[in-house]
Each structure stands twice: as structure tokens, then as C-alpha cells.
Amino acid sequence: MLFSQNIDPNQADKPRPFVLLRPFITAWQWLVPPTQAHRDRQSTTARVVAISSVVIICGTVIVLGFLYAKPIQDEYQNWQAERLYKEALEHTNDKNYRAGWDKIQRAVQIAPDNINVIRLSAEYLTALRQPESIYFLDQLERHGATKESDRVLRVRALMTLQRPKEASEVLEDMLNKQMPTDTLMKLAEQVWGKSQKDAMLTKAMTNYAERHPEDREHALRLARVQIASSKQLEVSDGLRLAWKVAEGEDDLSLKALELLDSASNLPPDESKKLIQRLRNHPKGNGWHLVAALRRQVKIDPLRRDTLILEAATLAKGRTRDDLVPLFRWLIEPPQNEYLKALSLITEDEAVSYQPLLENYLTALTALGRFSDLERLVNDKRVAAILSRTILAFFRAHLAYVTHKKPEETRAALISAKNASDIEHRADLLQRIAGYAEERGHYDIAEEAFRAVALNPEHERVGFDGLIRMTKSNGNTEGLLASSGEAVRRWPDDSRYQEDFLYANLLTGRDVELTLSQVQKLFELQPKDYQRQLFVALAYWRMSDMATATQYLNGMDLSNNHLTPGQQAVFAAIARDSTAENAVDVARQVLRDIDPTARMLPEERQCFTKAAR
Length: 612
Fold this sequence. Notes:
74% of the residues lie in helices and 0% in strands. The chain is mostly helical. The longest helix has 50 residues, at 44-93.
């Protein structure tokens, strides 16, 4: 009676729970009484079971948390890192490297063991020439995730860190374990140089070719290496192998014909055979037809005009893609057949296809048809298919050739440079930089070359132009910065060393250290008058006039060994020298210097000082 009566009168009016839920509710209330009355009537057994359940549940949660909290955290962090990695990859593909590097750094902090993050970090650090790249590549090894591309990256990283011996060992191990690929061939030339590369690659590739005679693609790769060799026997073997691959009518045979066409000294009978194959190959196109025409003109120059007419005839009925190489061949030297090229297509055909249009505008420029050129450059149809960079470039050239105000040419060149920056066109930036340099817009050329230097494929050309332009602009600080960075990247190139050391001496920086370095350069080439002047300049900076005078003696300034600015430095040192005829020597040197010549500010100061 006591345990069966209803102790909660309020429940009488409430509907009873669903029948299937009642056992669970009853069990729950038995363990966890809902009211004080229930708790008072709870049995000892129920209390023990309830307390035990709580202890077991809490213990289970603690144990599971101990076992799975870290894996769950790692999985979450790995998910965050993967998301950042994908964002970094998008930035990288868009060439927004700064944003990509920021994302990958955050990913490394969140999940340092993520394979994708480690690999992309290694790629970035290799491009930045940082020693930490080797650490991340070692991490890939530790995780057992190293791919062939990672080993290639290790070789490149070691080369950028000036560790060629280790790079050579890694590359040699790769060549011994796998078939040489185009990537490995290019890498081998960077590591070993052409001669050693050819010897190592030829040996490895020949062994592979002997084991796999059915592999025509590898045979063509071996033929390419052998034809590029300096050994005539290997060249002959390469030609024979290329002709063997060229048999047939597939794409690979066409590539073999292209390789044979690149050979400089084919025998006349093989040249005639190659011409016929290039003209008649079923996979051939306009580029192969032009290659055959070039070779025919070279073999039989007296038939040049006939072959040009034949090219014009062959162009009829050709596709636009086939017309491009024919058109370009006609307008390039030594043909210079601009009128014949223009006769191949109409203006409407030109403005409907970008590759044809660019060559069409070039032909108009060469013929001096500037009114037609200006009309087309301002045509909406042209603006719709030409990139902003090329359009601005043609406008700059049009302003120049039509003798408009220099400000118009400058404005168009600046627009072209800015557009190529946005479009990431390093090739066009290089053209713009060279064009600006030729026409005296050195400041624009300097900025364009600076942008070119940021592109890994064109950085050498970019630095060469940047150093040249900083001199033309009188930008000594820019010369110091660019030549210093070039020395860091290519420490074995003495040109960059000379520019950097000379800029240091002109500005009076680290004179004692620079003196020892220029003396070493001078000892390597004691007949180099520029290096001799550098040593004299260093001693002059240190106020050791007796030694500086000794280095000036015997220098010949009659053969333009020195630039006008360097001649001014010579005159200033000679003016302060201990020689009896110091003033006369300085004046004689100054007479041969054009006062309007471009000089660095420090060189101009020397010119002024020597003229007093």
C-alpha cells in the first residue's frame, strides 16, 4: 500500500506517456527521482545503482576523452590546414605569392604534420632560397611521403643554397633508379653543366634504351641528348636514332622530324629527305611547312623569290592557324616581304584572329602605314581581341613613330607596363623594357626590368636589365640593391661582383672588405683595366694616394675600356695623386669625356672635382 499509492496527486490529471516510453521513464525515475517524495521512497538498491551509473558514465567519458580528444583535435586542425592549403594553392595559381605564403604559414602553425602543407612550404622556401626548405623536405622523408617531384625539388633547393655536391649526389641516385625525364635532363644541365650532364645522361639513357627497345618515346629523348652533344660520334648516333623514330605517320614521328630540323649540319641528301617529310607528313601544319621552306631557302638561296611566291600560293585555302607561321615567316628577316604578307589576308580576317592581327600590325608598322595602324589600334574590334598590354604597346610605338609628344609615348609605355603587371606577362614586360631602353625612357625600363626580375623564368634577363638601367638612371642605391641581390643568387658571376663592389666603393661602404675582394678579382685578370681602377679607387677612399697612383700607372684609356663615369673617377684620382703631372693627366682625361654622358651621381662628383 505504501509503495503502490500515488505520491504525486498533480499527476492524476496528466495524460500517461506513450506506452513504449513508459518502461524507460519508469527506469529513469527509479534511478533519478523527479521529486523529493520520490527520493524519500527510493530504495537503497536504486541509490547504489544510480551512483554507480553516474560513476561509470563519468569514468567512461574521461577515458574516451583521454583516448580520443587528441585525435579529434588533430583531425580538426588538419581540416583547417587543408582549407588554408587549398586557399594558398589558389593564390599560387593566380601568382599572388604573398597571400599564398601567408596562408601556408598559418597552415604550418595549425597542422605542422600535414603532408600537403609541408610540400607546399618546401616549394615556397625553395623559391625564396631559404635553408628551411631542406627541413621540410626532410619532414616528407620522415613521413614516407616523398615523391619524384620532391626529390627534384630537393636538388633545386640544394643548388639555390650553394650545395652543388649534395645536389649532384641526389640527382645521380635518381638517374640510377629511374628513366631520365625531360625534367631531370634540364635539372642535370643546371647541376653539372652541359658537358658533364651529357655524359651522365647519355650513359643512363643508353642503358635504359637497351633494356627497352620498344620505347620510341625514350629513344627520341636519347636522340635529343645525343644530337646536342659536342662529340660527332654521338651526334651521328642521335641522328640515326631520330630517323628511326621518324618512320611512320604518328605524332611521335612528327616530333622526331622537328628534332632533325633543329640539327644544324644535316647532310644535303638528308636535308632534302627532311623537307619532303615535313611538307607531306599527315600530322604536319603550317609551322612544319615553314620549316621546310626555311631549309629549302638555305639549300638553294637562288630560288628564294620562287619559294616565297610558292609560300603565298600555298597559303590559299589554309586555315587561320596555318596562315600565322606563313605570315610571320614572310615579314621576318631576311624575307621582309611585308606587301606579300598583307596580300595573304584581308583586314577583316586580321582583326578576327589575334595571332594574325599582331603580325598584321607589325607589317603595317614596317611599311610606314601609320594612318592604317592608328585606325586599327583605335578600332573597337581590335580592342576586343588584343590584350591591354599589346594594345598599349602598339599605341606607344605609334606615338613614337608619328613623332608625337614624348609625354604620349611615356604614358602609353607606362600603361603597357602596368597592364603586363596585371596580366603577369613577363615576356611582354621584357619587350616593353627593351623598347623603353632603346628610346631613352630609362626610368620606365628600370621599373619594367624590376618586374621581369620577379619572374623565375626570366629573372636573369631582368637583373641584367635592372642593373643596366640603374646605371643609366644614376640610381646608385638601386645599383647597390640589384647587384647585391644578383651576387647572392649567382655568386660565381664576376659581372655582378664587379658592379656590386664598384657601387660599394663609390659610396664608401665597407671599403676595407671591398678592397680585399677587388684585389682578388684583379689578381685573376691583371690586364682588366676596370678591376685595376677599382683597386685604385679603394686605396683612394682609404687616402693611400701612393698606392692608388701605382695602380693608375700603365692604364690605357684609348680603347674605351672604361665608361665615361669611370674615366671621371680615374681623372679625380689622378688629380689627387702624388705624380708631378697629376693636374695635366686629369685634364687630358677630362677632354675625352662627353660632359653630357650619363653617370652615377658619385661619378659626376668626381668629374666636377677633377675639372677644378
